[in-house]
Amino acid sequence: MSARPRIALRVHGGLSARDCAAQARAAEDAGFSSVWFAENAFGRGAMSGLAASALATRSIRLGVGVFNPFNRHPTLIAMEIAALDELSDGRVVLGIGSGIRHGQMGLPAPRRSAAVRDTIHIVSRLLRGETVEYEGPAFSAHGARLECPLRRAAVPIFMAAMGDRALELCGRLADGVIISNLSPPAFTRRAVGLVARGAAAVERPMPGEVVQYVTGAIDDDSHAARRRAKAAVGPMLVAYCHHGRASAATQSAVRDYNGLTPDEFARVVRRLADGDAAADVIDDALLDCYAIAGTVSECLDRCDTYGEAGVTELGFSFAGEQPLRDIARVGRALDSARRARDDERSSPLPKG
Question: What's the CA dihedral at 146, 147, 148, 154 to 10 degrees?
Answer without folding.
Answer: 30
